[in-house]
Amino acid sequence: AVVSTQSGHYGRGPYGASNVDSARQNLAASFVNGFVNCAFGGDKLLAENGNKWLYKNKEHGMMSATASLGLILLWDVDGGLTQIDKYLYSSEDYIKCGSLLACGIVNSGVRNECDPALALLSDYVLHQSNNMRIGSIVGLGLAYAGSNREDVIELLLPVLSDSNSSLEVVGQTALALGMVAISSCHGEVTSTILQTMMDKSDTELKDTHCRFLALGLALTYLGKQEEASPAVEALKVV
After folding, report:
1. How far is CA 167 from the centre of its chain?
2. DSSP at 209
């Protein structure tokens, strides 16, 4: 396996690297390592020394580093989920969130009669922690992208109207729905996303995360320009 750093340690630069720079370097190393070893099934940074490496990151860096394990174990549903499972019991929410996302990545494009991604992630879609919601929702979006699975769509739709969903969760849910129902012009998905946009205040709509509502809606009409006309007219109201 190829690893992006030799030891996982970074020396201070000539002018003294800050903690922020170090965190960015570690995050970059996790991404590079994940992509270089994509579907290889093993590496020396995460698969062999995961616990030590994950704690070199902070918050979203922890989440991303854990999720990158899904890239390394891509499509290895049986063996991969076994290796990821232990991180679901971490005391760190960001690591647990990353492990949910990793589960989705491992199952991306895989059709399995046992539906492990749905079984593992469905319990966290309406979790009390918004971070856990994001991990499971984006994981489901990646695992079932292009499937137009009604059971997955029905699981995700209530998140848009749930009062405990942050704008980030709402945005990522719309994106996940768009990925699952891509190019399908799915009536319930499009109408629910449109209604969610109409219900938001002007201030909320200016939030960066609300852009994903528009992206999720657009994905459902990908390559279907003529069918998108009603949605375009409805958006003029927003």
Report:
1. 15
2. G
| CA-based torsion, 155, 38, 209, 214: positive or negative | negative
Query: What does the pLDDT read at residue 171?
Result: 95
pLDDT at 145: 95
Please report, for residues 162, 169, 230, the alpha-carbon distance to residue 213 in angstroms, rounded to integers and kept in the order given: 15, 11, 16
What pLDDT, on the 0 to 100 scale, is given for residue 47?
65
Structure tokens at 112: 């399995």
- The answer to whether 144 and 108 have CB atoms below 8 angstroms apart is no
Spatial distance between the Cα atoms of 181 and 191, rounded to a whole number of angstroms: 13
Alpha carbons within 13 angstroms on the beta-carbon side of residue 218 total: 6
The count of other CB atoms within 10 Å of the CB of residue 141 is: 26
Residue 28 buriedness (CB in 10 A; 0-12 / 13-18 / 19+): middle
Residue position matching structure tokens 């969130």 = 97
Q: Is the pTM of this model over 0.90?
A: no
Q: Which of 85, 107, 109, 172 is nearest to 137 (CA)?
A: 172
Cα separation values, 80 from 3, 48, 83, 144, Å: 19, 13, 5, 17
Report residue 64 as tokens: 């991303």
How far apart, in whole angstroms, are the C-alpha atoms of residue 57 and residue 61? 5
User: In degrees, to the nearest 5, what angle opens at C-alpha 147 toward C-alphas 170 and 188?
Assistant: 50
The low-confidence residues of the chain, meaning pLDDT below 50, are 1-17
